[in-house]
Amino acid sequence: MKQIITDIQNRLIAEVPELKYVDMDWGQLDYYNPHPPVKFPCALIDTPNIQWSNVLNKAQLGVVTVAITIADLRLSNSSNAAPAIQKNKAMEIFDILQKIHIALHGWTAHQSYTGLMRQSNAIRRREDGVKLHQIIFTTEVKDNSAIRQFETKEAELKVKVKLI
Fold first, then answer.
1. CA 114 to mean position of chain CA atoms
2. Which residues pair with 54 in a beta bridge?
3. pLDDT digits (tens, 9 = 90+) for 21-64
4. Contact between 68 and 137 (Cβ < 8 Å)
5. Rounded to whole angstroms, what are the CA distances from 57 to 3, 144, 148, 150, 158?
6. d(Cα 102, Cα 94) in Å, to the nearest integer?
7. For 77-111, what is each residue's pLDDT tens digit?
8. Is the peptide bond before 34 cis (omega within 30 degrees of 0)?
């Protein structure tokens, strides 16, 4: 998961410069009210769920849920009576969300996981004026780490013996 989170962080920093803070989600927005240790708008990356299935010889295939939480501190009025400049400022978050989708959907930076696929978007409101948008992506990873080296060699020898 370290590879995926690091790659996504680097991609968002490069492709969505409007984000002022990009990090792994370790609860920055949940445990530090009223002043979370982030700059807004920010993107927090997590892998909250992995569904594993067995493939062969102790290898596993995992479907990884990648949650990108985008937090924006609402300081601008977006009502019909607001000046156009305020309304535009309040709506900038939607441009950022679209840039994140474009930057990540179908993208991968490493052969260890497949291209990210967007699955859903959700919004969560808070009492402190921070609005949370969450984009869920999925990717697949193959984990061969449980295969012991001698088991692999032993299996190769059995195959060679059968061929002879």
1. 13
2. 60
3. 999 999 999 887 778 899 999 999 999 999 999 998 889 999 99
4. yes
5. 24, 9, 9, 12, 14
6. 12
7. 777 887 888 888 888 999 999 999 999 999 999 99
8. yes
d(CA 100, CA 110): 18
Contact at 8 Å (CB) between 23 and 13?
A: no
Give whole-number Cα distances, 48 to 66, 86, 137, in Å: 7, 36, 11
Closest CA to 118 of 137, 134, 133: 137
Q: Is 68 left (phi over 0), alpha (psi -120 to 50) or beta?
A: beta
User: Alpha helices of the chain — where are they, by DSSP H?
Assistant: 2-15, 84-104, 149-163
Band (146; pLDDT cuts 50, 70, 90) = confident
Six token digits for residue 89: 């400022």
Strand partners, 45: 24, 68
Give the separation between CA 146 and CA 4, rounded to whole angstroms: 20
- Give which of 108, 100, 5, 98 is closest to 47, Cα–Cα: 5
Residue in 6, 50, 7 with CA at minimum distance from that of residue 139: 50
Average pLDDT, the chain: 90
Could you give the count of Cα atoms lying within 13 Å of 42 in the half-sphere of its Cβ?
18
